């Protein structure tokens, strides 16, 4: 362990470890002792690690280090004497930023869950899994090598499986958790292959080594045999496949909306702080590698932009409150990805913007989900058509929800405005005008669907009086995190973000820090963006503030198109068709048949042939003395003849005798059958 | 002294052996088969005696062997006859073709 | 008497003691078996630690020589005329395998604690089998190796045929005949090696250093690889495994899939050591076969609904990875293959133990007839889940270490064809996830299918112990893989030197 001179940074390894211990203790020992000990222990663990991260963050940012520190590093797995999988703690601006976001939001979600999950039979299990999830994510963020990140990546996957399937006796939850795991696993296959490519051609797994210019240059110049492709873009795209899976980029997004089957705090955790940002983080972590390859960046940008638009369109038609938020997350993740895609090493504004948006999004999306959870808690329904007028029974939820909606819609001067503006500016500066236009459009759509949600839920009028009358504000443990989260949702945008977070190891690339700072607000970009947002809000106001028939009419007018969008472009059905019909029925089933009937069949055939041969030979055993006699005498004669002929060499003689005997048996059998005197055989057949 | 030569003895014993063999392979009656076995044994014994007489006069081994053979043949016939009697009681006839319960 | 002889003799002594005990004293029979296996577990752990102490816990690999450096050697002439010796000695890989055997049999005895039918004979055969397994891993003389190999394989017939379920006679016969077929190839191979080496010795090192002529290696290597591969589940000679494992009683399945199948991989590794030229010649061919193993075992497992069949096909897939790693002839992949032997041994023992316990409660092995079991038997359910996660290669559990090493190793073969094979093999991480999760969720999640299952009980103490041990080892090996790699890389040096 190398000391960095900062206490908190030196002890950063405790940050993931504490939730892990929490998981072990709660999971193994506190399952039966009620709610209080389980939640307290879990919150204590995550709280302690939050304090540690804040300490480390304070140390890191006040010292304005801007460089990479490695407080802990050890050899974990040796592949060969030259290829070693190290583990450790990597501290730079993005990892510090992320642990701040993750621990803080996770802590608030833990607190919130205390109230939300109250009375659930799986309460201790829930907290154990939350701790595990946070542990995996923190380990991922602090990863020192790409191998380590892969390890925690998989752990994130499995914790999401456990949490999405938390209500495991509900079939839809079971399907959802399976889907989430398998889809991300499929994406991880790409990551794994990328890891192999990087490991083999790069000859190392450590991030510091991989992102150094020498390695990148080396990778760039290495070409694959036969195909002649440079290794660099290949590995970048393969790794991106994994990132796209976790961050739910099109076409691997299908697991995310279904993941809403988990309890709402889980959705908040997945969407705001843990799982989905892992993909963005991975790309950011390997950014120098991506920046060196046009194709890699292009992929990131195009897929990001497309997902962003695609999801925003779907979100405008959904009625399930959590699903709208899920598609909104997809869309915002697409935003972050496209922002990374437009950045370069010379112009890393997009990188900063992406991290900035990640942070602000984490705050307001957590707020939105927790608010939605509060609403669901109150009305016991997910369907927005059952809600309406809830601003009166749920005043705190309403207020905080409104703040989050304004923030995500990009209304100045809330946090979302700044981060979104920075992304738009980055796209504009990078001269990606199509992407800029898409991002602009998405900004408008975002405002529209968020306020559609907002108006349908809190304004309008109560559609289900029974539910409405029973609705009441959630307990303090639930509203407290809402209020806390509202603060950064409003003010986080004012932090001079690019001052702290930019692409790491600046001195390496010969770029001065001053060059990177964001030059204030460019109103030529921010103005239209805000206008788009406000237009979206206005449209939502017109259509949904007072209930009227207009949305229905519009939906009717667009008929098939609306249906297409409402059913999420039938991507799920396509997958279902592919897996169920193609893989199960046309690949797996024939394989199983092949195995049982041909492979195993041939083994059985051998056995049966032997048996049959035995049966055939059996008829030569007639039970009659004289047959035996005939055999023994002819055997003796042949043996004698052979010994006489060849003389001496016992081995040969024996071999010939054996052969001769077998041959004679067959000949004799043949003769018998020829003469149709094979009575024993007939009798066997009769048996 | 004029008598049969060694080859004449051997030819005779070979004939005896072949008769015995033929009998064993063709006769269906067990007693006849037993008699054939005796013929074969006697052929062997005759060979021993002939070789003893013409080639190894001083050696006692060749003369002792026929005695053993006779003793063994007696024991063997006793057992064989016992089996034959048992079989006859069981099947009421002595045709070997039907005594095939060991088949297959 | 040396440590290795002691380890081999203890189960054998237990067989004798159990043989002398009256049949009615089932409790004492079980206690004797438990005592013997516990002592062996202790000795194996000691062996492992002591060996690690000898070669050093960390640092660069000190072993660079071509000679196998054996420890705990015991050697005396047995059948002098033929050059057969009683020659025991272990390298790191054998140490790891002996440890695995001890763990699995210890847990296996626990898992058969409820066994009531002809207890005496059952434990006699079980321990006899283990004696053979220990012998195989400790033997350094080819003849002795084969002798123990047969001792390990043959009791299986009785164990499955008498105590099995379902079409047990058929399965037992099939398993024994196919494995005997493999043995026949092996025995021929051993004799050819003995005569070709011409050193009048069955000693592995002597034969390896005698440099078998390439023309012989060319045909003999595949013969031997198929011979051992049959036991290691090599496609297309794997079909004994699903039927055999499905019919076998719990402890036998555990031991067979957990340890005996490893004898195949272990033997193949020895063959690579003895016949490096043949291995180079046939490496690609066997990579193709084992790719089929892995890829297709997983796909077939997707279709199955019987838990034992699912596990058996997953074994085919996982053991395929062992043989695949060996066929790549690359140090990293070798390491992965050996780790996979260890990891698969633990996880499959865990699976079969759990299946036995679950079957004992639900009286069905079909996942379609189960559901919601997590609620009634959380301990078993969570254990199964951990096993499943180990099976699909979740980091933090031993399976991942093996998989990643094999993949990294096989990716180092720099040709398009080998790359395609590697990619095909790597897709198994997805298919494995599909069938594992399918089984898991069908069985444990969802509403309870059968109202009889509402009142089932969770694991009792005697059942919890083996599960806890196996899970602990899986996690320990998965989180701290360094010691395994240390053991393995130390012992691989001669193999690699021979291959150069």
Notes on the protein architecture:
The complex is a heterotrimer of chains A (687), B (104) and C (500). By secondary structure, chain A is mainly alpha-helical. Chain A is built from 31 helices and two strands. Chain A has a two-stranded antiparallel sheet with strand order 1-2. In chain A, helix 7 (171-202) runs antiparallel to helix 10 (231-246). Chain A is elongated, with a radius of gyration of 34 Å. Chain B has helices at residues 6-26, 30-54, 61-91. In chain B, 74% of the residues lie in helices and 0% in strands. Chain B is mostly helical and 104 residues long. Chain B has a single domain, classed as Orthogonal Bundle (Helix Hairpins). Chain C has 500 residues and is mainly alpha-helical. The longest helix of chain C is centred in the C-terminal third of the chain and has 32 residues, at 331-362. Chain C is globular and about 70 Å long. Chains in contact: A-B, A-C.
In short:
The complex is a heterotrimer of chains A (687), B (104) and C (500). Chain A has 687 residues and is mostly helical.
């Amino acid at each position: 362990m190398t000391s960095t001179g900062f206490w908190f940074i030196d002890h950063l390894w405790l940050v993931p470890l504490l939730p892990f211990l929490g998981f072990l203790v709660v999971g193994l020992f506190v399952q039966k002792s009620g709610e209080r000990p389980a939640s307290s222990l879990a919150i204590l663990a995550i709280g302690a690690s939050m304090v540690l991260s804040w300490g480390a963050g304070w140390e890191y940012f006040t010292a304005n280090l801007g460089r990479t520190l490695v407080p802990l590093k050890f050899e974990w797995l040796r592949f060969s004497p030259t290829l070693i999988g190290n583990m450790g703690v990597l501290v730079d601006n993005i990892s510090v930023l992320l642990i701040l976001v993750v621990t803080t939001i996770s802590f608030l979600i833990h607190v919130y869950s205390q109230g939300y999950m109250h009375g659930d039979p799986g309460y201790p299990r829930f907290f154990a899994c939350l701790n595990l999830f946070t542990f995996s994510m923190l380990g991922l963020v602090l990863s020192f090598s790409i191998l380590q990140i892969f390890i925690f990546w998989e752990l994130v996957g499995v914790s999401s499986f456990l949490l999405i399937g938390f209500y495991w006796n509900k079939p839809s939850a079971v399907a959802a958790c399976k889907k989430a795991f398998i889809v991300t696993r499929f994406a991880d296959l790409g990551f794994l292959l990328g890891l192999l490519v990087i490991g083999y051609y790069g000859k190392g797994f450590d991030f510091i080594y991989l992102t150094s210019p020498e390695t990148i240059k080396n990778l760039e110049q290495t070409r694959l045999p036969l195909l002649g492709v440079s290794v660099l873009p290949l590995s970048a795209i393969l790794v991106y496949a994994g990132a796209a899976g976790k961050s739910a980029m099109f076409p691997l997004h299908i697991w995310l909306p279904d993941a809403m089957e988990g309890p709402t705090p889980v959705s908040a955790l997945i969407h705001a702080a843990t799982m989905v940002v892992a993909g963005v983080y991975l790309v950011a972590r390997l950014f120098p590698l991506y920046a060196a390859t046009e194709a890699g960046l292009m992929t990131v940008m195009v897929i990001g932009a497309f997902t962003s638009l695609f999801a925003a369109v779907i979100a405008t038609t959904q009625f399930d409150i959590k699903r709208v938020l899920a598609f909104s997350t997809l869309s915002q993740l697409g935003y972050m990805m496209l922002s990374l895609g437009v950045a370069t090493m010379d112009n890393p504004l997009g990188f900063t913007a992406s991290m900035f948006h990640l942070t602000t999004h984490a705050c307001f999306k957590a707020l939105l989900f927790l608010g939605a959870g509060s609403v669901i808690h109150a009305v016991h329904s997910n369907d927005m058509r059952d809600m309406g007028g809830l601003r009166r029974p749920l005043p705190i939820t309403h207020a905080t929800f409104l703040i989050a909606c304004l923030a995500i819609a990009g209304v100045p001067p809330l946090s979302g405005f700044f981060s979104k503006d920075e992304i738009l500016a980055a796209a504009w500066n990078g001269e990606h005008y199509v992407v800029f236009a898409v991002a602009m459009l998405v900004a408008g759509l975002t405002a529209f669907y968020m306020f559609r949600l907002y108006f349908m839920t809190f304004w309008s009028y109560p559609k289900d009086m029974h539910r409405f009358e029973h609705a009441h504000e959630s307990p303090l443990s639930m509203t407290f995190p809402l209020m806390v989260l509202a603060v950064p949702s409003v003010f986080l945008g004012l932090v001079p973000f690019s001052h702290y977070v930019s692409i790491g190891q600046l001195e390496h690339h010969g770029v001065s820090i001053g060059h990177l700072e964001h030059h204030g607000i460019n109103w030529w970009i921010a103005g239209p963006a805000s206008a788009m947002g406000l237009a979206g809000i206005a449209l939502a106001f017109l259509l949904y503030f007072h209930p009227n028939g207009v949305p229905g009419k519009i939906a009717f007018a667009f008929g098939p198109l609306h249906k297409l969008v409402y059913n999420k472009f039938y991507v799920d059905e396509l997958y279902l068709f592919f897996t169920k019909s193609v893989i199960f029925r046309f690949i797996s089933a024939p394989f199983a048949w092949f195995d049982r009937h041909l492979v195993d069949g041939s083994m059985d055939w051998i056995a049966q042939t032997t048996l049959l041969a035995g049966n055939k030979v059996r008829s030569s055993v007639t039970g009659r003395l004289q047959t035996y006699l005939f055999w023994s005498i002819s055997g003796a004669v042949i043996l004698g003849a052979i010994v006489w002929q060849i003389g001496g060499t016992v081995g040969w003689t024996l071999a010939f005798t054996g052969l001769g005997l077998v041959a004679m048996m067959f000949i004799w059998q043949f003769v018998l059958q020829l003469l149709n005197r094979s009575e024993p055989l007939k009798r066997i057949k009769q048996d | 002294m004029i008598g049969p030569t060694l080859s004449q003895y051997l030819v005779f014993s070979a004939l005896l052996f072949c008769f015995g063999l033929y009998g064993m392979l063709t006769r269906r009656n067990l007693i006849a088969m037993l008699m054939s076995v005796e013929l074969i044994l006697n052929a062997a014994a005759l060979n021993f005696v002939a070789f003893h007489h013409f080639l190894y006069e001083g050696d006692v081994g060749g003369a002792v062997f026929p005695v053993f053979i006779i003793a063994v043949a007696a024991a063997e016939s006793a057992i064989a006859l016992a089996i034959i009697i048992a079989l006859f009681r069981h099947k009421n006839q002595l045709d070997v073709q039907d005594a095939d319960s060991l088949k297959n | 008497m040396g440590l290795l002889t002691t380890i081999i003799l203890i189960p054998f002594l237990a067989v004798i003691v159990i043989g002398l005990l009256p049949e009615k004293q089932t409790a004492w029979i079980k206690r004797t078996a438990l005592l013997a296996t516990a002592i062996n577990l202790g000795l194996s752990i000691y062996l492992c630690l002591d060996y690690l102490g000898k070669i050093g816990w960390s640092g660069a690999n000190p072993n660079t020589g071509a000679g196998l450096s054996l420890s705990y050697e015991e050697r005396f002439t047995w059948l002098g005329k033929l050059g057969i010796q009683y020659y025991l000695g272990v390298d790191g890989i054998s140490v790891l395998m002996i440890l695995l055997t001890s763990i699995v049999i210890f847990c296996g005895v626990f898992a058969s604690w409820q066994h009531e039918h002809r207890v005496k004979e059952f434990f006699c055969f079980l321990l006899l089998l283990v004696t053979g397994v220990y012998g195989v891993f400790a033997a350094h003389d080819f003849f002795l190796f084969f002798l123990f190999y047969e001792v390990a394989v043959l009791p299986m017939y009785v164990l499955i045929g008498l105590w099995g379920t379902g079409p047990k006679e058929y399965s037992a016969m099939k398993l024994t005949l196919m494995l005997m077929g493999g043995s026949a190839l092996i025995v021929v191979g051993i004799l050819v090696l003995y005569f070709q080496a011409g050193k009048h010795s069955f000693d592995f090192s002597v034969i390896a250093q005698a440099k078998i002529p390439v023309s012989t290696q060319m045909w003999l290597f595949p013969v031997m690889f198929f011979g051992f591969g049959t036991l290691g589940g090599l496609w297309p000679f794997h079909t004994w495994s699903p039927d055999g494992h499905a019919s076998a009683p719990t402890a036998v399945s555990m031991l067979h899939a957990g340890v005996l199948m490893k004898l195949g991989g272990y033997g193949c590794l020895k063959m690579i050591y003895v016949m490096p030229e043949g291995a180079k010649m046939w490496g690609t061919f066997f990579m193709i076969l084992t790719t089929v193993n892995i890829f297709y075992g997983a796909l077939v497992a997707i279709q199955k609904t019987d838990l034992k069949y699912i596990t058996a096909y997953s074994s085919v897939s996982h053991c395929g990875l062992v043989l695949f790693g060996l066929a790549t002839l690359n140090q990293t992949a070798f390491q992965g293959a050996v780790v996979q032997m260890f990891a698969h041994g633990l996880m499959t023992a865990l699976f079969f133990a759990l299946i036995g316990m679950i079957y004992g409660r639900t009286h069905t092995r079909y996942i379609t007839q189960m559901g919601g079991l997590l609620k009634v038997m959380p301990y078993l359910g969570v254990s199964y889940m951990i096993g499943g996660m180990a099976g699909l290669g979740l980091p933090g559990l031993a399976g991942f270490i093996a998989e990643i090493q094999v993949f990294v190793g096989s990716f180092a073969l720099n040709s398009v064809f080998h790359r395609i094979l590697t990619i095909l093999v790597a897709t198994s991480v997805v298919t494995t996830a599909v069938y594992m999760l399918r089984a898991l969720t069908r069985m444990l999640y969802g509403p309870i299918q059968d109202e009889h299952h509402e009142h089932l009980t969770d694991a009792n103490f005697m059942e919890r112990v083996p599960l806890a041990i196996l899970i602990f080892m899986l996690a320990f090996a998965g989180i701290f893989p360094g010691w395994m790699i240390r053991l393995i890389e130390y012992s691989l040096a001669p193999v690699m030197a021979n291959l150069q």
